[in-house]
Design goal:
Chain lengths: ~170, ~200
């Protein structure tokens, strides 16, 4: 348990486990939490759409349109109940302005659309901008932090605190 | 469709990378007045996640100089310099690191290395290649490499990374010199060598 690499999905219900999506650029780290069941999961989403039937299942987290349902299914299998699930996401930056389309913004929009379709509430989102990020969730305490390059980690969501909505949907893509 | 490369093609690409980074090392050596060592380049054809890991730890800070290519093939040249290496380069050039002029010096190093690499590639393949103005950023390695690769190719199945290390003698400074061509760009590099069909 630990690093969730590009295209991967991990789910854990073992208190103290950490799930970490490192060095997110245009990719999205999506953390789902069901505090009551003690389950957390993370997907490291790379691209917005799969364009067709599900490709190789070795990277279930690669495409936003497949990753969101796949992560939810893994959470439910581990005992999570959908209506209790909270979502926190980070990433979707535009690291370079090379004139190409903004994959980060499209990734963020696709993940949000998937969560909305599934009826999952987004408690905090730190997306857009031009900095790399690392998203980390600790199982049990259900604290989600995001760290930008060269900065200290910031708490985006605290499962134990009533202040957990403080940064709701702040700083969504410019 | 996923492109595949044969051993022969990868050898040819490694040789192209070797000569191109050799020219870059010579330019860097002239610029700094120091000896610059060069290792044998790695040519990696890997899924994107593995290609990023091959470049280093994804959330380590790294200074990246990005030189987009213009002309007959699409792709980018990327220099990855550890923060300490960036400070060393600035010191050797007599400018203050992390200042505006320091950043401009690193961009210029990118420009010169990129241009000498492209000239070598162009003369070997007969392709017309020109560097665009460099971008400079200090950020997480994974964020830089993955976002660049994704901006070059939507395919994450197989990314080609041509990677060599330039080492400035007796200084804590090594520069990772990475060529990230698009899938079409790889074919264009191999065609003049008569190797495009082997796949």
């Amino acid at each position: 348990m630990g690093t969730v690499r590009m295209g991967e999905i991990e789910v854990s219900k073992r208190a103290g486990d950490e799930l970490v999506a490192r060095g997110l650029g245009s990719c999205i780290g999506l953390a789902l939490i069901d505090r009551m069941s003690g389950v957390a999961g993370m997907a490291h989403v790379v691209l917005p759409e799969s364009n067709g039937p599900a490709p190789g299942s070795d990277e279930p987290g690669k495409f936003a349109d497949l990753a969101v349902p796949a992560l939810i299914a893994r959470m439910q299998k581990a005992g999570a109940v959908l209506r209790r699930v909270d979502a926190v996401m980070a990433g979707g930056a535009r690291m370079f302005d090379l004139g190409e389309m903004d994959i980060g913004a499209r990734n963020a929009a696709a993940v949000k659309a998937g969560l909305t379709r599934a009826g999952v509430a987004i408690r905090a989102a730190e997306t857009g901008g031009n900095r790399g990020r690392t998203l980390r969730v600790t199982v049990g305490q259900f604290v989600v932090t995001v760290r930008e390059a060269g900065e200290d980690p910031v708490v985006l969501f605290d499962g134990k605190s009533s202040k957990r909505f403080a940064r709701t949907a702040a700083r969504v893509a410019a | 469709m996923t492109p595949r490369y044969t051993e022969l093609q990868l050898d040819a690409l490694r040789e192209l990378a070797n000569i191109a980074s050799g020219h870059a090392a010579t330019s860097l050596s002239q610029m700094l007045g120091r000896e610059v060592g060069l290792n044998v380049p790695r040519v990696l054809a890997l899924p994107l996640a593995d290609a990023v890991d091959a470049c280093g730890s994804p959330d380590d800070d790294i200074t990246g100089v990005v030189i987009p290519l213009e002309g007959d093939i699409a792709g980018v040249v990327l220099l990855l310099i550890e923060p300490r290496g960036a400070e060393t380069l600035c010191r050797l050039l007599g400018v203050e690191a992390w200042s505006e002029i320091g950043e401009s010096a690193l961009r210029e190093i990118g420009n010169i290395l990129g241009t000498s690499c492209l000239n070598a590639l162009a003369s070997m393949t007969g392709l017309h290649l020109e560097p665009c103005p460099p971008h400079l950023t200090t950020d997480m390695l994974g964020a830089i490499v993955s976002s660049l690769a994704l901006s070059q190719t939507a395919s994450t199945e197989l990314v080609l990374v041509l990677d060599s290390e330039l080492e400035v003698a007796n200084e804590p400074c090594s520069i990772s010199f990475v060529l990230l061509p698009t899938a079409g760009g790889v074919t264009d590099l191999l065609t003049p060598l008569g190797l495009a069909e082997a796949a």
